[in-house]
Amino acid sequence: MDDTRLPAGLEVSGLIRQVQAAGGFAAVLAKGEPEAGTLVVVLTANGSPPRAFERMPQADGSRRWALARAESDEAPHEFAEWLARRQAQDRDLWIVELDIPQGERFIGL
After folding, report:
1. Is 2 within the bounds of a domain?
2. Cβ contact 95:85 at 8 Å
3. Which DSSP letter does residue 88 get?
4. What is the pTM of this model?
5. How does pLDDT run across 47-105, given as a tens digit for each residue?
6. Structural domain of residue 14, as residue ranges?
Protein backbone atom coordinates (compact mmCIF):
# COMPACT_ATOMS: atom_id res chain seq x y z
CA MET A 1 0.00 0.00 0.00
CA ASP A 2 1.28 3.47 -0.88
CA ASP A 3 0.56 6.13 1.75
CA THR A 4 1.53 8.97 -0.61
CA ARG A 5 -1.29 11.47 -0.84
CA LEU A 6 -1.64 14.64 -2.83
CA PRO A 7 -2.37 17.78 -0.82
CA ALA A 8 -6.15 18.36 -0.94
CA GLY A 9 -5.82 21.82 -2.49
CA LEU A 10 -3.67 20.44 -5.31
CA GLU A 11 -6.07 17.56 -5.95
CA VAL A 12 -9.03 19.97 -6.09
CA SER A 13 -7.17 22.27 -8.48
CA GLY A 14 -6.35 19.32 -10.74
CA LEU A 15 -9.96 18.10 -10.76
CA ILE A 16 -11.25 21.54 -11.68
CA ARG A 17 -8.74 21.91 -14.53
CA GLN A 18 -9.51 18.46 -15.93
CA VAL A 19 -13.26 19.03 -15.91
CA GLN A 20 -12.97 22.48 -17.47
CA ALA A 21 -10.60 21.16 -20.16
CA ALA A 22 -13.22 18.50 -20.99
CA GLY A 23 -15.90 21.19 -21.42
CA GLY A 24 -17.58 20.85 -18.03
CA PHE A 25 -18.09 23.15 -15.07
CA ALA A 26 -16.46 22.72 -11.66
CA ALA A 27 -16.79 24.75 -8.49
CA VAL A 28 -15.52 24.63 -4.93
CA LEU A 29 -18.58 24.64 -2.66
CA ALA A 30 -16.54 24.48 0.55
CA LYS A 31 -12.83 25.11 0.96
CA GLY A 32 -11.09 22.92 3.49
CA GLU A 33 -7.56 22.48 4.78
CA PRO A 34 -5.16 22.87 1.82
CA GLU A 35 -2.70 20.16 2.85
CA ALA A 36 -4.58 17.39 4.64
CA GLY A 37 -8.27 18.13 4.09
CA THR A 38 -10.70 15.44 3.07
CA LEU A 39 -12.70 15.65 -0.14
CA VAL A 40 -16.33 15.14 -1.12
CA VAL A 41 -17.00 15.29 -4.86
CA VAL A 42 -20.54 16.09 -5.97
CA LEU A 43 -21.28 14.87 -9.47
CA THR A 44 -24.10 16.11 -11.67
CA ALA A 45 -24.68 16.60 -15.37
CA ASN A 46 -27.12 18.96 -17.06
CA GLY A 47 -29.37 19.29 -14.02
CA SER A 48 -29.44 15.59 -13.12
CA PRO A 49 -29.81 14.76 -9.41
CA PRO A 50 -26.46 15.20 -7.65
CA ARG A 51 -24.49 12.34 -6.14
CA ALA A 52 -21.78 12.72 -3.52
CA PHE A 53 -18.67 10.54 -3.49
CA GLU A 54 -16.09 10.15 -0.72
CA ARG A 55 -13.03 8.00 -0.28
CA MET A 56 -13.93 5.19 2.09
CA PRO A 57 -11.47 2.97 3.98
CA GLN A 58 -11.20 -0.57 2.61
CA ALA A 59 -10.28 -3.80 4.39
CA ASP A 60 -6.81 -3.73 2.79
CA GLY A 61 -6.12 -0.27 4.24
CA SER A 62 -6.61 1.61 0.98
CA ARG A 63 -9.20 4.32 0.44
CA ARG A 64 -11.48 4.09 -2.60
CA TRP A 65 -14.13 6.40 -3.97
CA ALA A 66 -17.65 5.29 -3.03
CA LEU A 67 -21.12 6.76 -3.35
CA ALA A 68 -21.89 8.41 -0.02
CA ARG A 69 -25.23 10.07 -0.80
CA ALA A 70 -27.56 10.72 -3.72
CA GLU A 71 -30.37 13.24 -3.98
CA SER A 72 -33.80 11.63 -3.96
CA ASP A 73 -36.83 12.87 -5.88
CA GLU A 74 -39.00 12.53 -2.76
CA ALA A 75 -36.81 14.69 -0.48
CA PRO A 76 -34.31 16.73 -2.50
CA HIS A 77 -33.58 19.05 0.45
CA GLU A 78 -32.02 16.16 2.38
CA PHE A 79 -28.99 16.12 0.08
CA ALA A 80 -28.10 19.76 0.85
CA GLU A 81 -28.73 19.12 4.55
CA TRP A 82 -26.38 16.11 4.45
CA LEU A 83 -23.63 18.21 2.83
CA ALA A 84 -24.08 20.89 5.49
CA ARG A 85 -23.83 18.27 8.27
CA ARG A 86 -20.70 16.77 6.72
CA GLN A 87 -19.11 20.20 6.56
CA ALA A 88 -20.06 20.94 10.18
CA GLN A 89 -18.52 17.60 11.27
CA ASP A 90 -15.24 18.21 9.46
CA ARG A 91 -13.97 21.78 9.13
CA ASP A 92 -11.08 20.50 6.97
CA LEU A 93 -13.55 19.17 4.37
CA TRP A 94 -13.49 20.29 0.75
CA ILE A 95 -16.72 19.98 -1.24
CA VAL A 96 -16.27 20.19 -5.01
CA GLU A 97 -19.05 20.03 -7.60
CA LEU A 98 -18.32 18.66 -11.05
CA ASP A 99 -21.03 19.29 -13.65
CA ILE A 100 -20.12 17.09 -16.61
CA PRO A 101 -21.44 13.86 -18.16
CA GLN A 102 -19.77 10.70 -16.79
CA GLY A 103 -18.11 12.66 -14.00
CA GLU A 104 -17.07 9.40 -12.36
CA ARG A 105 -14.16 9.17 -14.82
CA PHE A 106 -12.50 12.12 -13.06
CA ILE A 107 -12.35 10.29 -9.74
CA GLY A 108 -11.33 6.94 -11.17
CA LEU A 109 -14.63 5.08 -11.11
Report:
1. no
2. no
3. H
4. 0.90
5. 899 999 999 888 888 889 999 999 998 998 999 999 999 999 999 999 999 999 999 99
6. 8-107
